[in-house]
Amino acid sequence: MHAMQYELTLPADYDMGVIRGRVARVGHLLDEWEGLGLKAYLMRERGAHGSPVNQYAPFYLWDTMAGMNSFLWGGAFQRLSDDFGRPSVRQWTGLAHQAGGAAGSPARVAVRRRQPVPDGAELAEVMADAVRATGRLAAEDGAVLAAAAVDTGRWELVHFSLWAHDTPEAEGDVFQVLHLSAPGLAGLPRGRQW
Known about the structure:
- This protein is α+β, with helices and mostly antiparallel strands.
- It has a single domain (about 1-190), classed as Alpha-Beta Plaits, CATH 3.30.70.100.
- Helices cover about 25% and strands about 35% of the residues.
- It contains four helices and eleven strands, in the order ββαβββααββαββββ.
- An eight-stranded antiparallel β-barrel has the order 1-5-3-10-7-9-8-6.
- Strand 8 and strand 9 form a beta hairpin.
- It is globular, with a radius of gyration of 16 Å.
- It starts with a strand and ends with a strand.
């Protein structure tokens, strides 16, 4: 499993209806994308759920590198770049993925929490803690799924979760889920990824 996200931070007065309309028009295009576990079309609005910004920030869990590369280099990402400018694409190596008790329910919100891996920390223990945290998140009421991944270039952990209600039991940046493409979700490896 491989996680990926890019963020388009938009002006404070930006009409976020433009983003909703875009996702309504094109969101289905990845509903059958080969190698994609899931793409959560995420949006934050300034003032909602404590967000200081307007932002479009899709989050991906890829089952194959070929699927991710096909998305990035095969034209789909180019269209977004042509419309909004090319964003920096963050990538993390998967640590854990777990279905939640509300798996199969429509996801209403997502939570993303990034945290540094402390200098001098025992890496095996930090990664094991991230796996345990994924299991705890997935066990919370209303959790659709939880995942954890690490960026070894920045030594940063990302915890990602989807929720069936608007009051998630997780800390971090809260995003509205506009659409979920999940063609390979059932095939994503569960539990610890090593």
